[in-house]
Structure formats: C-alpha cells, structure tokens
Amino acid sequence: DIFKVLDNINVTGIISSMESLIEQSKFMVTIYEGSGAMNKEELLEKDLKGDLNCYKQVVADEFKKSLDELQEVYEKLLKLVGGEHIATINAGVSLANGLKAANRGIEVEMLLTKLAVVSKRVHGPDHDTTKSVEADLQKSKVRTVGIKTRDEDECFQALRYEEDGGKCVVQGPLAKPRNPQEEKTFTVATEDLIYYAGTPVVCRGLEGSSSHLNGKVGDVQPWRDGRKDSYEVHFEENDLEPCALKPENIRILFDLPGES
User: Fold this and answer.
1) Nearest to residue 67, comparing CAs of 112, 122, 34, 104?
2) Nearest one of 86, 94, 141 to 119, comparing CA atoms
3) How many helices (H) and strands (E) does the chain have?
4) Which residues pair with 194 in a beta bridge?
5) What is the pLDDT of residues 29-85, one digit of tens each?
6) How many CB atoms lie within 10 A of CB 143?
7) Which long-range contacts does 1-4 make (Cβ < 8 Å, 24+ apart)?
8) Rounded to a whole number, what is the distance in angstroms from the first to the last CA of the chain?
9) Exposure of 58 in the CB half-sphere (CA atoms within 13 A)
10) N or C: which end of the chain has fewer CB within 10 A?
11) How far apart are CA 251 and CA 246, in angstroms?
12) How large is the angle between the packed helices 86-101 and 48-81, nearest 10 degrees?
C-alpha cells in the first residue's frame, strides 16, 4: 500500500516541477520589468502584460496542484502506516519543502518540529532520517534578511532585536555553503531591513480598524505588483484576510508560539 501511494504520486517529480515553475515565473517577471533593449513601455505595446498575467495564473494553479499532491501523499501515509513510519516522515519532509517554496515559513517550521520530535523519539537521535529532519528544521529557523545599505545580492541572518526593536543584530553575509568563520556580526537599524518572502512576522503598533491584528503572526509574501513600501502578510489564522502592512508594523518572529 505504501508503494502504491508513492508510485501514484512522484514526490521528487512534484518538488522538481514546483522549483521549475518558480524559476519560470521569476524569468517572466524579469522580462516584464524590463531588461536589455526592451523596457516596460515596449512590452506593454506588444501586449505582453496580458500574456504574463495569464501565464502567472497558470503557474499559480499548477503550483497549488503540486502542493495539494504532496499534502495528499503525507495524509495517505499517515492513515496507512502512521506518523512514526520512515516513509511518512520522509513524505512530511517533502511537504515541508513544498510549503517552503510556497513561502509558508510558519507551517514549514511547525511541521518539521513535529517530524523531528517523532523521528528522534521512535528512531533515535543518531538515525539518518532524524539527523536530516533536524538539519532541515534548523535551516527553517534561520531568519534571512537583506539590508538596504548593502548589495542587493547579499543576505544576512537576523539574530535578535535590541533597543526596543529599533536595532537588529545580524550575521553575514551568508555564502552558499555557509562559512561562519567568514561572517561578521553587527547591528543595523531595523528600518534598513528587507524582509524576504516566507519570513514569519508578528504585527505591532496598528491602530484603528487594524488594531485587532496586533500580536497576530503570519508570513511575508512577495508583492504581485512590485510594491516596496509595504509587505503583504498572510496570517496563520485562516479567518484573517491577507493584509498590506508597513515595515514599522511588523517584527520578525524568531520563536514561534509554543517554542521556548
């Protein structure tokens, strides 16, 4: 039964497909924003804006389908063999990778935390699966940011806030693979941080009709229209609609609720 589930849905293929969709979407957005001899006006004249919007919708639909399939694999294995089976844990990791690609950082960390606890308890801390899940979990806890005053290709790990949130301690720049010996730790003004898609954040300082969002947590999402003065936040609570928030009204969530 396990192999039937895995044979019917190619998990590796789904992840590869999702990654391909992301890269294609980025490429199309780059074209639209204009590069080389073609600027935005020329693209509009060629009616590529409509083509791009149509293409992006197709990508979004296919992306959701792939993520749904990963969810299906995980849930089927939960029912067939339970959450302690290696196949189920691996399927959960694949789902976490899909959620990461969808910029759902909070769900990624919560799922990997659950999988790590189960794997360590059942299979032991030295099992290859446990080590792999733990490594993915630690990566999910890294809050990566950009800094407005640095090169746009450089990214850093945000470590903590200081001075009542006015400053943030960061470490980097981060290389691939990381080389901690070459990284520097320093403090920057919080207003100079650039939050990346998928970063868990918590709302603060909102007034009036938006005050009910204070203390609510969610993930930063990329703006579809390229806005840079605000961040679109998708909340963890399903009954809350996505909202555009100013940088001063969000703070990085270093520890998810329930974590020590």
Assistant:
1) 104
2) 86
3) 7, 10
4) 146
5) 444 444 444 444 554 444 444 555 555 565 566 777 788 888 888 898 898 889 999
6) 23
7) 1/80, 1/81, 2/77, 2/80, 2/81, 2/85, 2/87
8) 39
9) 10
10) C
11) 11
12) 160
Residue given tokens 């606890």 in the structure block: 117
Verdict on whether the full-model pTM lies above 0.85: no
Residue with token string 């039964």: 1
Measured in residues, the chain has a length of 260
Dihedrals φ, ψ of 46, to 5°? -85, 5
- Three-state SS for 27? helix
Residue with tokens 């009910």: 212
**DSSP secondary structure code for residue 173 in this structure:** P
* Beta-carbon count within 10 A of 140 CB: 23
Looking up tokens 């639909």, which residue turns up? 61
